[in-house]
Backbone:
């Protein structure tokens, strides 16, 4: 984290803005996860309601990284007085292509903005979401559900993707990272077959894997922009 020599005015303005800051509503549907979430637009809208009128603005931009596999994003919180603070959030791209890097940048923008200004996601119905733990999928060994043979049908692959989505969704702690990596290694050939047969289904399960893999990265850290 870096900041200007004095941030007294910025701190006062941020404190005032946060008095009126509301949470970002979970209005976007994620068909792969069958859930609602607060997307980047919702977080930005929540901030724009209170930030600018208190002399505050946010700037975000990708930054260079010494490691070609890493994606870095710098987020700056600025005040009309000229005071500022900034931090850079870095994580590895789950795939070395436009999809992988794009997913990482979107993730970085959403979480960095939420963190620097204090926006929290809230349920759209206004009720607090109390998490008591996710149930383990009935099929804890999804290998048995992989379609086989050259004449496998789309319906089989659709069911397989649904099973794998449930399996990956349940991997939500740092200790599950090895399970996710093992899943990718085990089903690498199956994913290749799926891509050739139905690219839309392939993109769906690949997107779920990317989201889960990014969330479980053990070295997601905020590092100094210097």
Residues:
């Amino acid at each position: 984290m870096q900041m200007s020599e004095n941030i007294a005015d910025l701190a006062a303005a941020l404190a005032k803005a946060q008095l009126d800051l509301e949470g970002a509503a979970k209005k976007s549907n994620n068909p792969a996860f069958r859930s609602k979430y607060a997307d980047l637009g919702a977080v930005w809208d929540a901030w724009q309601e209170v930030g600018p009128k208190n002399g505050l603005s946010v700037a975000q931009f990708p930054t260079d990284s010494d490691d070609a596999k890493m994606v870095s994003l710098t987020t700056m919180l600025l005040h009309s007085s000229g005071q500022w603070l900034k931090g850079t959030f870095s994580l590895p791209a789950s795939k070395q292509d436009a999809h992988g890097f794009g997913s990482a940048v979107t993730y970085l923008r959403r979480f960095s903005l939420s963190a620097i200004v204090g926006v929290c996601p809230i349920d759209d119905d206004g009720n607090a979401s109390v998490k008591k733990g996710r149930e383990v999928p009935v099929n804890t060994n999804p290998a048995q559900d992989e379609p086989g043979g050259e004449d496998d049908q789309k319906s089989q692959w659709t069911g397989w993707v649904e099973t794998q989505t449930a399996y990956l969704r349940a991997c939500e702690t740092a200790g599950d990272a090895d399970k996710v990596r093992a899943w990718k290694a085990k089903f690498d050939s199956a994913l290749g077959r799926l891509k050739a047969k139905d690219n839309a289904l392939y993109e769906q399960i690949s997107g779920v894997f990317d989201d889960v893999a990014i969330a479980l990265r053990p070295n997601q850290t905020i590092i100094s922009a210097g």
Residues 148-215 form one domain. Residues 28-33, 123-140, 219-226 have pLDDT under 50 and may be disordered.
